[in-house]
Amino acid sequence: MTRVLAAARLQLAHPLVVLGVPWLVVTTSFLINLAIWGMADVAEKSGNTTNTGGLASLYITVIVVFSQAMTQMFPLAMGLSLSRRTYYLGTAAAALVQSLGFGLGLTVLEAVEDATNGWGVGLHFWAGGGLDVGNPLLQLVVFTLPMIAACSIGLGIGVVFKRWGAAGIYGLSIGVLLTAGVLAILVTWRNAWGDLWAWLTDRSVESLTITLPLVLAVAVAGLAYLGLRRTVP
Description:
By secondary structure, the chain is mostly helical. The chain has one domain (2-228). Helix content is 81%, strand content 2%. Helix 5 packs across helix 7 (136-189). The chain is globular and about 60 Å long. The two termini are 22 Å apart. The chain crosses the membrane at residues 12-36, 56-80, 87-109, 137-161, 168-189, 209-228. Keywords: Membrane, Transmembrane, Transmembrane helix.
């Protein structure tokens, strides 16, 4: 357990990068959107409060940060005689704690956003697109589980790069693109876009932000661990 905690603390070797950069990116996005909404009266012109997809920048940056946990910190961990299993468990623990902390921060920001009617300009940045579920505890879960999924995706991408290099990343990208393309072709062939959209809109916010991210996080985390077992520093 001590060595697992040591592996977890490795992720804080550069706290400004691991913790600061994601919030710097999303805060910049927030300030830009706030200025636009304030100067252009976007909410008033649209007839209601509006939202933006800028929050996604936080999750995307977390993916990048945790991919670097494998590409940069993994060799250091091996140099410190940590086993692959120990490093993986420590990194996973750090991801869980960080995701919970980020989720808590987002929940607080969402509460302030609601209390100020979208920061006074009708901007729903931190809980846009129907993410406001009206329950603080459930709101925390809604923010946290997708963050855990983002961490898992980042670790998975990092493992692919460490084991197969750039060729692995290209292969992964092509595989994802082909899969999406085949699915799009299949849905078009079946004239099922309307049915697919209806199915998505019938899903609750909870199912889309809790169930799906949880399944994705578990699946990717498992595959990442299997890949890491044969990865060299």
